[in-house]
Amino acid sequence: MPTAIAVTSADLVLPPTDQQTPTAALLQAPDAQALELAIGDMHVLLEQHGYVVAVYPSGISPAHERRLYSVRSVLESDRIALVKVDLPPLGVAVLVRQLRQLSICDFSPGVVASAARLLTHYIHAGALLHSVTKFDRVPVDLRTHAKSWVPGSQFAVVAGPEPQLVRVGPKADPPTGPEFGTHLMTAKGQSQSEWVKETLAPAWQVQSIHESALPSESPAWWGTGKLVEFAAYLPDISVLYQLVASVRRENCRWCRMELIGDRCGFCSSPLPAAENRMHSAGVLSHGALAPPQS
């Protein structure tokens, strides 16, 4: 029985990569569903799957986040993991699909939940913006803000794993990209620019480009609707499996769930630093990068 993956917005559910990849359940906002119905839906998920890993972006409304904790509290369940992700919306959607892929592998629910933090290190999420005047996710200096008022200005921003911001131009280098083979997911807002496909994708040597609808939360996250959001990611389930399987596993001292990394995905209890050891060098294709400490 696969662990259920749940999301807080329907547009965080990308099409499956194959017939085996399950979909994700939708945990609706308070203004869209009464608390009693939300509790009932979660109860059904637990009955059907045993465990639920709910992934939600850091930008959701406080009321929606409180709803998630309220449902878990009312059910008094230790089988619900609430995983808050500080990635742009398209990056969250990519991460959710990777967790959906892993949910049908032979990993315990605790490993699936704590794998979310590991996998965020391998998602290069960003956007091409036509203005950074309202963008506050990555530090922007006054000179860059001033340039954003010049008609036709464009900026390439990478929010993670390492923040970058560069002005797009004929002589400007693109942001630094992944050092391993990836696919690129793109989503257009109110921009007709082809820079992501024509310049960024070749510079990052992506193996394939895919298009998606722009998540509804993206304009608010990036501070503008004139954007092209993108996310480079590991597409191969066998590589994802090896990456997660190669990390040392521990049992949480508080809830006894299995985990990888330095924090339990279910109760958020930290693992003592001396026990947090991750060994997976050479897992990725090309052997270019070992997982960072998470």
What is the fold's blueprint, element by element?
Elements: E1 4-7, E2 25-26, H1 35-49, E3 52-57, H2 62-75, E4 80-85, H3 89-102, H4 109-119, E5 124-129, H5 142-147, E6 155-160, E7 164-167, E8 183-188, H6 195-204, E9 208-211, H7 218-222, E10 227-233, H8 237-245, E11 249-251, E12 258-260
Parallel strand pairs: 1-2, 1-3, 3-4, 8-9
Antiparallel strand pairs: 5-6, 5-10, 6-7, 8-10, 11-12
Helix pairs in contact: 1-2, 3-4
Please give a quick description of this structure.
This protein is of the alpha/beta class. It contains 8 helices and 12 strands.
Feature tags:
294 residues, alpha/beta, Hypothetical Protein Tm841, Chain: A,domain 3, six-stranded mixed beta sheet, four-stranded parallel beta sheet, 8 helices, 19% strand, globular, disordered C terminus
- The helix/strand series, from N terminus to C terminus, equals EEHEHEHHEHEEEHEHEHEE
The order of strands across the largest sheet is 7-6-5-10-8-9
Distance between the termini: 28 Å
- Total number of beta strands: 12
**Main sheet record:** 6 strands, mixed
Return the CATH topology of the domain at 124-233. Hypothetical Protein Tm841, Chain: A,domain 3
Overall spatial form: globular
Range of helix content: 25-40%
What structural class do you assign from the helix and strand content? Answer: alpha/beta
Assign the CATH architecture of the domain at 124-233: 2-Layer Sandwich
The CATH first-level class of the domain at 124-233 comes to Alpha Beta
Q: What number is the mean pLDDT? A: 89
Whole-number radius of gyration?
19 Å
Helix count equals 8
pLDDT < 50 stretches: 275-281, 285-294
Portion in beta strands: 15-25%
